[in-house]
């Protein structure tokens, strides 16, 4: 492939001409940027099939010669020119074909060069600049810095052009090229310093807001539109297996304009599970947005005069470090509802361009797509970063649109990764920080919950279901993962909800008391083990050294957990008892559970309040004369009747627990690997897992759970 190609005869077959042009492209002789060669290469009406070995050979040849020819940079420049031409020619088919071929070829060769780079500075092996000779010969100083020129052109194309059936595939090729270009992150660490060079994503971070805003908006519009592949773009797809070549042949009138390069071509239609994506533009637009908004790079503060910086206030990187401004994150955080133009207190409009989005469509799309991890991450990013969208969600009367998919996924926790469970819980924690949310979820009545299999739940409130699922998640975590962050966040959400509980169902009330039972038994077992260890160390110090020294830590953790559950019960009894007779019934029914903790120094004050309630209702029960035996209905009648006369006399008032969510000081350690794991598994771009350094990309061994392949965790809830 690297040998000097011979010029084909004038009557040569198209395949022979194509072979010549491709050999020239990857060969050692440099072609001028203005040469007709590029027009011929990108206009090839190819229907020939290249085996994977030929593609690999061509990539190797380009990698060897690109240092001298700069053909990759020139190809990228021609791509931008072709995209600009599509705007000026109203999308002529021949121009679209040139742009598509340029984008696809760029992706194939760029991906190979990135994955086979042997150094940390990715600008060196890619040679993404023109030589002085090229610039002088072609008179093109404006494209001397190719990465900035290319990124600006790609962002401008996406941000300024609408997706139509005829341009769908071109938009998809451009989105995929951007994902490939930014995949240098896969081959470095999550925390980026000043010396880490990622040419394309670094160039994207210095673009002006006037370009970034429309680009972010169009990515979200594509996600919301969820356009399927056009009917004339149907493909017969056979996925490669082992060393066999895959066959990807397009069915339709445009087949003659498609460069058929296996190993990449339309592989993005197939995700890692082998399922065909029917809406690849929507899916990959979202993945690209997530890559951009979660990029975070540290820089020395002395560079503040050159770069826009966010000062590091947490001290995680030292006082002399800051973070490069991320315009994509900022655009998402400042996005506003297209139906509502907010002005500030002084009456002046928002400073700078603002992304305007239909929040109603975004809300509905998220509700439909939350089974997908990338949609969960987008919802988290919006709720955590965009106060306007959070406010919009909180005033919606159909919160079940978002919450039911979230609760169903938590119900199905055994099939979810730890990272996914973290994100779902933090979404609920962010929402539970608002008292109106905690009140409204108990007013929304669900006719049934078909996916809940343990028991029929007819006419239950959304709030009661949420309590049941959170408690179920705690119990599952205790038996399987034993992850302190999952425990903490579940209990934090329940604590935020507790003062606002309204007519908690009988089943949810029973689950709450059973949660106390489960944690108290775990606490008692740890306390006994700790006492035995202390006794052993006193009697035989040498033997005591060999004992498990993790028991005191675990005991301390479960002391906190048990106290939080007691505070949850206390908050309901203190602030919402008249509205929750089923909670009173559940406590009366299992009142013996609280007796061992009545004199416990860590719990007695909280248990005293519970006994104040128990004494009040037990006395009312004792004073009643009934015919026959007691029944659930008769007990509830007495409880309901006496709830009206309850005044809370003798109850000690405690400060309400309130938990808020805070990101860790270096959130990129979680989000960058997490986002790229989603890109690798969902985009269909067939990244080489052997070259990934960002996270353990190879399948784990049998004794390691699959959901532990990224060993990073989000921050737990913060009590205030």
How would you explain this protein's 3D organization?
Belongs to the dymeclin family. Keywords: Lipoprotein, Myristate. This protein has 720 residues and is mainly alpha-helical. The chain has a domain at 397-539 and 547-663. Helix content is 53%, strand content 4%. Helix 11 packs across helix 13 and helix 25 (581-589) crosses helix 27 (632-643). It is elongated.
In short:
With 720 residues, this protein is mainly α.
**pLDDT under 50 segments (min length 5)?**
234-275, 304-309, 311-320, 343-350, 700-716
Structural shape? elongated
Overall SS class: mainly alpha
Q: Termini distance?
A: 66 Å
**Beta strand %:** under 5%
Assembly of the depicted chains = single chain
Overall helicity: 40-55%
Give the strand order, joined by hyphens, for the main sheet: 3-5-4
Q: Specify Rg, calculated over alpha carbons.
A: 31 Å
The average pLDDT is 82
Number of helices: 28
Number of strands: 11
- Mind summarizing the main beta sheet? 3 strands, antiparallel
């Amino acid at each position: 492939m690297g040998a000097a190609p011979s010029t084909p005869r004038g009557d040569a077959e198209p395949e022979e001409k194509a072979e010549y042009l491709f050999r020239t492209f990857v060969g050692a002789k440099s072609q001028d940027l203005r040469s007709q060669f590029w027009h011929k290469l990108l206009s090839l009406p190819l229907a020939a099939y290249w085996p994977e070995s030929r593609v690999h050979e061509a990539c190797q040849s380009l990698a060897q010669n690109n240092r001298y020819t700069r053909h990759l940079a020139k190809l990228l420049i021609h791509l931008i020119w072709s995209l600009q031409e599509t705007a000026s020619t109203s999308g002529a088919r021949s121009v679209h074909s040139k742009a598509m071929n340029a984008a696809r070829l760029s992706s194939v060769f760029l991906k190979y060069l990135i994955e086979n780079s042997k150094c940390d500075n990715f600008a060196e092996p890619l040679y993404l600049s023109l030589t002085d000779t090229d610039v002088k010969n072609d008179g093109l100083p404006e494209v001397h810095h190719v990465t900035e020129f290319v990124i600006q052109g790609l962002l401008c194309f996406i941000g300024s052009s609408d997706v139509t059936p005829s341009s769908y595939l071109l938009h998809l090729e451009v989105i995929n090229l951007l994902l490939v270009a930014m995949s240098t992150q896969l081959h470095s660490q999550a925390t980026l310093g000043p010396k880490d060079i990622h040419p394309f994503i670094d160039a994207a971070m210095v673009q002006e807001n006037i370009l970034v805003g429309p680009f972010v908006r169009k990515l979200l519009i594509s996600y919301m539109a969820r356009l399927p592949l056009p009917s004339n773009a149907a493909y017969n797809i056979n996925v490669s297996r082992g060393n066999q070549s895959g066959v990807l042949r397009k069915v339709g009138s445009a087949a003659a304009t498609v460069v058929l390069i296996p190993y990449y071509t339309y592989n993005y239609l197939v995700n890692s599970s082998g399922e065909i994506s029917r809406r690849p533009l929507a899916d990959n637009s979202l993945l690209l947005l997530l890559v951009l908004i979660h990029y975070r790079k540290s820089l020395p503060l002395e560079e503040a005069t050159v770069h826009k910086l966010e000062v590091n206030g947490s001290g995680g990187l030292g006082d002399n470090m800051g973070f490069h401004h991320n315009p994509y994150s900022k655009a998402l955080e400042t996005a506003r509802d297209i139906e509502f133009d907010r002005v500030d207190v002084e009456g002046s409009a928002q400073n700078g361009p603002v992304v305007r989005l239909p929040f109603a469509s975004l809300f509905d799309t998220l509700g439909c797509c939350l089974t997908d991890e990338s949609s969960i991450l987008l919802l988290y990013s919006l709720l955590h970063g965009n106060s306007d969208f959070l406010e919009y969600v909180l005033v919606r009367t159909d919160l079940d649109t978002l919450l039911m998919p979230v609760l169903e996924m938590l119900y199905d926790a055994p099939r979810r990764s730890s990272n996914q469970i973290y994100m779902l819980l933090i979404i609920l924690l962010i929402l539970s920080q608002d008292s109106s949310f905690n009140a409204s979820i108990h007013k929304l009545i669900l006719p049934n919950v078909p996916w809940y299999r343990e028991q029929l739940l007819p006419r239950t409130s959304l709030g009661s279901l949420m309590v049941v699922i959170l408690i179920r998640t705690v119990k599952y975590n205790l038996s399987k993962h034993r992850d302190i962050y999952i425990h903490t966040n579940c209990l934090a959400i329940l604590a935020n909800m507790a003062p606002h509980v309204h007519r908690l169902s009988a089943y949810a009330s029973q689950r709450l008391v059973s949660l106390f039972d489960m944690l108290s038994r775990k606490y008692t077992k740890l306390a006994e083990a700790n006492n035995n260890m202390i006794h052993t160390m006193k009697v035989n110090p040498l033997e005591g050294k060999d004992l498990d020294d993790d028991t005191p830590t675990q005991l301390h953790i479960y002391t906190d957990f048990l106290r939080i559950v007691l505070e949850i019960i206390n908050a309901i009894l203190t602030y919402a008892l008249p509205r929750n007779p089923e909670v009173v019934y559940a406590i009366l029914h299992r009142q013996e559970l609280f007796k061992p903790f009545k004199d416990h120094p860590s719990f007695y004050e909280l248990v005293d309040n519970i006994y104040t309630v128990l004494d009040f209702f037990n006395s009312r029960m004792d004073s009643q004369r009934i015919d026959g035996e007691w029944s659930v209905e008769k007990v509830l009648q007495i409880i309901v009747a006496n709830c009206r006369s309850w005044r809370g006399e003798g109850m000690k008032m405690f400060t309400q627990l309130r938990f808020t969510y805070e990101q860790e000081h270096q959130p990129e350690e979680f989000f960058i690997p997490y986002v790229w794991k989603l890109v690798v598994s969902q985009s269909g771009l067939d990244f080489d897992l052997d070259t990934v350094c960002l996270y353990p990309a190879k399948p784990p061994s049998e004794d390691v759970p699959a959901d532990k392949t990224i060993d990073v965790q989000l921050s737990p809830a913060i009590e205030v």
